[in-house]
Amino acid sequence: MSMVRRMRICDISQDEAAMSTRLKIAFATSDMQHVNQHFGSARTFAVYAVDMESSELLEAAQFGELAQDGNEDKLSVKIDLLDGCAAVYCEAVGASAIRQIMAAGIQPVKVNRDSLIADLIEDFQNELKTGPSAWLAKAIARQNGADPSRFARMEAEGWRSEAGGQSVGYDSRKPFDKGEAQRVARPSHPTHSSQPRR
């Protein structure tokens, strides 16, 4: 299965500065106005760049006739198309497709049939303005990349994790022990006793 047609409206590589503040989101659509396609059998995806104030159609990709037949080979081509997208909105999506989409760092979003793309973009923008959900906050962080100086800033602000009077840190070479984390993360405050409550 391959893409039949792909139209790019805007060359993302030429406008990287603008894309650094925008997120790419895709919509499974047959008419470029409504989300009305199952992810696996979607014939067309519309990909938009969206920020708090604006949105712009970046590209549209069209695939040949597809059935909901359990053939997962067709999914990889679609997921490749969505590379760099924070989310893909669709009418429905199968469990295997969800795993593959999420493994690619893309959030699948199931919406009601015939939801207007313009309304979904507006809802997305409102979420950006009012405070993103957990998946959206992760997508923003992923796009912005890790800040290597964040731990130095935390240390300068006086953040420390202590256990038994010794400073401790996370050692990525050993398995994470939730019990140890709870003991280490227990807040120490001068007005609180370290004795267990009765």
Explain this structure:
The protein has 7 helices and 10 strands. It is an alpha+beta fold and 198 residues long. Strand 6, helix 3 and strand 7 form a beta-alpha-beta unit. It is globular. The C terminus is likely disordered.
Summarize the structure.
The chain is α+β, with helices and mostly antiparallel strands and about 200 residues long. The protein contains seven helices and ten strands.
Topology:
Blueprint (H helix, E strand, L loop, with lengths): L2 E6 L7 H4 L3 E6 L5 E2 L8 E7 L4 E9 L9 H9 L3 E6 L4 H9 L3 E4 L4 E2 H14 L3 H11 L5 H7 L5 E2 L2 E2 L10 H8 L13
Parallel strand pairs: 2-6, 6-7
Antiparallel strand pairs: 1-5, 2-4, 3-8, 4-5, 9-10
Outline: globular
Q: How many strands appear in the DSSP assignment?
A: 10
Strand content: 15-25%
Structural class by helix and strand composition: alpha+beta
Q: For the CA atoms, what is the radius of gyration?
A: 22 Å
Strand order of the largest sheet: 1-5-4-2-6-7
Oligomeric assembly: single chain
Low-confidence stretches: 165-198
Query: In percent, how helical is the residue content?
Result: 25-40%
> Number of DSSP helices?
7
- In whole angstroms, how far apart are the ends? 66 Å
Largest sheet: 6 strands, mixed
Order of helices and strands: EHEEEEHEHEEHHHEEH
Mean model confidence by pLDDT: 76
